[in-house]
Amino acid sequence: MSKLVIFSFLGGDLNQGFPVVTAQLWHNNQLFKITGSLPAVPELSDIYRRWKLLYEAVHQRLGSNQRIKVHSQDITNISVNDFDEVCHQLRIHINTWLKSEPFQNIERQLRTLLSRDDEIRVIVETNITLLHRLPWHLWDFFEHYPKAELALSNHEYASPQVVQKSSTDRVKILAILGNSFGIDIDKDRSWLQNLIDTQTTFLIQPTRKELDEQLWTQNWDVLFFAGHSASIANGEVGEIHINQTESLTIYQFKNALKTAITRGLKLAIFNSCDGIGLARNLADLNIPQMIVMREGVPDLVAQEFLKNFLVAFAGGKAFYLAVREARERLQGLENDFPCASWLPVICQNPTTVPITWQELRGGWGDTETRGEVSAQSIISTQKMKSTIATRKCKLWTVLLSTAIVNLSTIGLRYLGFFEKAELQTFNQIFVLQPKEDLDSRLLVVEVTEKDIQSRQETTTGVKSISDSTLAQLLNKLQKYQPRVIGLDIYRDFADPSNESKPIQLATELSKKNIVAVCKGRDGKHDPEGVKPPLAVPIERQGFTDAVQDPDGIVRRQLMMMAQELSSACATPYSLSLQLAARYLSYESIQPDLNQDYIQFGSKVFKRLKPGRSGGYQQSVDLGGFQILINYRNTDYQRVSLADVLSDKVNFDLLKDKVVLIGVTANTISDTWSTPYSAVQQPYQEIPGIFIQAQMVSQVLSAVLDERPILWVLPFWGDILWICSWSVVGSLIIWRIRSLSHKGCTIFVTVVTLYGVCAIALLKQGLWLPLIPSVIAVVASGVVVLIQRRQEFFTVPRPLVE
């Protein structure tokens, strides 16, 4: 089922900015509302107007056969390169505007609620004509979500009042072929004629009376127009040229259009030029959806869009996906017709669900888009397997149906269908754990924005602290005898200004209790990597490569991995493992490092098995030695760089501690999401140094405090767990005679299952497969319920039960 995101731009314009911008996300009858704002960007208006003039001039120069005459005498001697530059500026300004900080609250929260594989309908709701004309699809958001497509809407709308629907099994199309002087609309007609399961009536250059008569007296599913059209009165009014002498605005035949909408008109397609005015006017009549062209459109572009849209839509694709595919395929024409893929746009009434081709034909539509329970197919299979004359729900029937449900559930899980839901459920349970005490073994020295600004330190283009300041900090810390110091600041460059300082960074880094960081080379994502400081040998190096889940959350700790031969970072050990191991060595606990486990004393850390482990079934790489992170629900002792250097710290805090040094300045983009981020308002990411602290703390706490290590069952254990709950649940439901009690039993079983999984995770660290188990229990229960219901109505019942 698709997700709906509505952006509302209220109380402003591009010159003043928008003090209130709201984003509403609708999915499965749930609403998430997020607010933000956008600054003034008056230059965007100027760039768009220049783009429009150049667009018309370039097409006129290239000899494009437009569906409306263009006027661009204001610009002469224009080149395609000039036009390309303006297109680039328009893209840059739109993305810069939408990346402004007041708007980031909206974008960040949306990205946590949306998945790359989601089908997303994005509606921009505004009454400002210029905003309707902007090419919103240039926003990087649409690159990240390949199944998202844009639609436009006015601020005010209502649900269409449909009092009469077509009863035919064919799609009824009224095709208006208007004034075609100088253009070719025969291709449009041929594509409509070739559609199967349609009943198309063509009005060729009709009079106003003929058009009015058809809209008043017939039931139509689709209204189509090809010919000349325009937006007049500064884009506020749209008109179509129905023949060579007559043109009509929407308001001049609005009564007929309103009648057609109440009779079931669901879609209007204006395959003609400059349709924003048409869309704005027709939206006032609450038509469900439209497709128009933003600007003047060349004949070939209009024809190719119509062909590709009809093939995709009539072939079963969702309306928005069909429009996006047809629009993006126009990019292949842009050598001859620049910006062709910018032109088509949907205009949507937000109160309506986009129609499907099957629904236009009078069918039931795609059950998945309606959110119906997929267990019905399983129920049908079970009914075929049982004999109609069965007088009892036999035990073997229950077991057989449960086995089929289990196989289906396990197969879907294996294919990754439940992965996103399992990760989200993990978050919801994990954040229920109570507040924990501080880990007194760790201290974080943070380099804040104030530290950087006060010292005005920018080294070789990297906003950080200078070698001399870092050397002074390390020298100061060493005086108070920490067990180990972790430097989570990249230092792969030399700072010449440090050479004359009394305290040399190389000298401080040569001390044996310091571990410095580097980053491994990744041929796919990071071909460079980051080198360690020259003064630190490989045995005191640790990599900081992080692994994120598809939703952007860090749930896993990468402890060891084999580096590529050409990698600048050669150490196979992570910073967190190096720090924990060196701290534990003072406790006479040495690590036993193996390919499948790491052991400190009696505590064993087992890796997540590559391929599939726990809720990870498809979309993540489990290579190297990875474990789940058991985050502490608490902060860490922290002091600032300035406090250390000015002796404002109780240095007793440093003795025998793990000290981590890292940058937390808000201008450094080293922030990450954790399971706690999504439940915090506003959404909060934390600096990478605190992720490192969590990783070190979880190893030390597991070894020294017996704090649980997060773990998962082996693959066969997951299968056994899912099947056990499904079988036991279905047998209990089968034994209960009352139909109403069976439904209650399913509910109680699901609640019990949730409680067991929550206790296992919070108390023992065991991540059990909750979502597939719930699916199996509910589906098995529904099967038994249906079988029992059949028995109830087909078997003679005693007077007393």
Short description:
With 801 residues, the protein is α/β, with parallel strands linked by helices.
Descriptive account of the structure:
With 801 residues, the chain is an alpha/beta fold. It contains 24 helices and 31 strands. Helix 10 runs antiparallel to helix 11 (319-329). Mean pLDDT is 85; it is low at 68-74, 364-393 and 792-801.
Uncertain regions: pLDDT < 50 for 5+ in a row? 68-74, 364-393, 792-801
Shape: globular
- Sheet with the most strands, sense and barrel status: 11 strands, mixed
- Number of DSSP helices? 24
Q: Would you tell me the structural class of the helices and strands?
A: alpha/beta
Q: What proportion strand?
A: 15-25%
Average pLDDT figure = 85
Using the CA coordinates, give the radius of gyration. 33 Å
- In whole angstroms, how far apart are the ends? 43 Å
Taking strands numbered 1, 2, ... along the chain, how are they ordered across the largest sheet? 3-2-1-4-5-14-13-12-8-6-7
Number of strands: 31
What percent of residues adopt helix (DSSP H or I)?
25-40%
How do the helices and strands line up, and which of them pair or pack?
Layout lengths: L2 E8 L7 E10 L2 E9 L3 H21 L17 H19 L2 H13 L6 E6 L3 H5 L7 H4 L3 E6 L17 E7 L8 H8 L4 E7 L3 H10 L4 E5 L2 E4 L4 E5 L5 E3 L4 H9 L4 E5 L4 H8 L5 E5 L5 H16 L4 H11 L14 E5 L8 H4 L14 H11 L9 H20 L4 H12 L11 E6 L1 H7 L2 E2 L2 E2 L3 H12 L5 E5 L16 H5 L4 E5 L22 E3 L12 E5 L14 H11 L5 E3 L3 E4 L2 E4 L18 E4 L9 E3 H5 L12 E6 L7 E2 L13 E2 H18 L5 E2 L2 H21 L3 H26 L1 E2 L2 H25 L7
Parallel strand pairs: 1-4, 4-5, 5-14, 6-7, 6-8, 8-12, 12-13, 15-26, 15-27, 18-19, 18-27, 19-20, 30-31
Antiparallel strand pairs: 1-2, 2-3, 9-10, 10-11, 13-14, 16-17, 21-25, 22-23, 23-24, 28-29
